[in-house]
Amino acid sequence: MQITVDLDLCESHGSCVFAAPEIFSFDDDDHLLYEATPDDGLRADAEKAAASCPVRAVTVAAP
Length: 63
Known about the structure:
Blueprint: E1 2-5, H1 15-19, E2 24-26, E3 32-34, H2 43-52, E4 58-61
Antiparallel strand pairs: 1-4, 2-3
């Protein structure tokens, strides 16, 4: 699975962090960090995170 975040669209709402904390987090300056190729076992959480993004900055794709 491949996760992409359009950081130009991202407004740091944090929905993805709450939906999938194993994949998404913020650094000390509130910049989004994420695992671009997480384990496929986290697909449901990744898709939930993408769906929760209010600006649709997160996409999940097959490898």
